[in-house]
Write a structure and sequence with these properties.
With 184 residues, this protein is an alpha+beta fold. It contains three helices and eleven strands; from the N terminus they run ββαβββββαβαβββ. The strands form four sheets. The chain has a five-stranded mixed sheet with strand order 5-4-3-8-11, with helices on one face. GO terms for molecular function: transmembrane transporter activity.
Length: 184
């Protein structure tokens, strides 16, 4: 233990020594050092190695860039439909069709849209070969205010165009489009 001389009081020369307990001070110092060491290890281990090391053998072969496939974007407007073929971000073609419907009770049909979709598929499709099992992609863009029966009529027009695909069990007629909805 360490001692501290506090001096004398008044004129008397009385020596008073007070002892300070050094153990808590040493404990605090050791905890601080341990904390700093552990933090230094965490900082060192948390770094990410930024070099481009790819597992496997290094291949000098050039990377072949595959162009994205064409995708049909069907936009339902208030007075017309827009058929836009895109390849990546590039617009390949765009066609507008007026919205003329045939209504039979509750059912709505768009025969002009179905005919134009078939013509557009014949002109721009990626997968026409009967041995090709993939379907062309169509994305439906619509407003939230569009009535559901109109959306169903557009889906019917999209699925009206069919093609024959050769499968193991024999030939089968399938729709040409795989349909998805756009989300905003």
């Amino acid at each position: 233990m360490g001692g501290v001389d506090v001096g004398s009081e008044g004129g008397k020369k009385k020596a008073t020594n007070a002892e300070i307990n050094m153990v808590p001070f040493i404990d605090l110092l050791m905890c601080t050092i341990a904390f700093l060491l552990i933090t230094a290890v965490w900082v060192t281990n948390s770094r990410i190695n930024a070099d481009a090391q790819v597992p496997g053998p290094a291949s000098p072969d050039p990377i072949t860039v595959v162009a994205p496939e064409k995708v049909l974007n069907v936009h339902i407007g208030e007075s017309d439909f827009a058929l836009v073929w895109k390849q990546g971000a590039t617009v390949v073609s765009e066609v507008r069709i007026p919205k003329t419907s045939q209504e039979a009770g509750e059912l709505v049909k768009y025969p002009d849209l179905a005919k134009k979709l078939e013509a557009e598929w014949q002109a721009n499709a990626n997968h026409r070969d009967p041995s090709d099992k993939k379907l062309d992609q169509a994305i439906l863009h619509t407003d939230n205010r569009t009535p559901f029966r109109e959306v169903v009529a557009v889906l019917d027009a999209l699925y009206a165009t069919k093609r024959t695909v050769k499968l193991e069990g024999g030939d089968k007629e399938l729709p040409v489009f795989n349909m998805t909805f756009a989300a905003r």
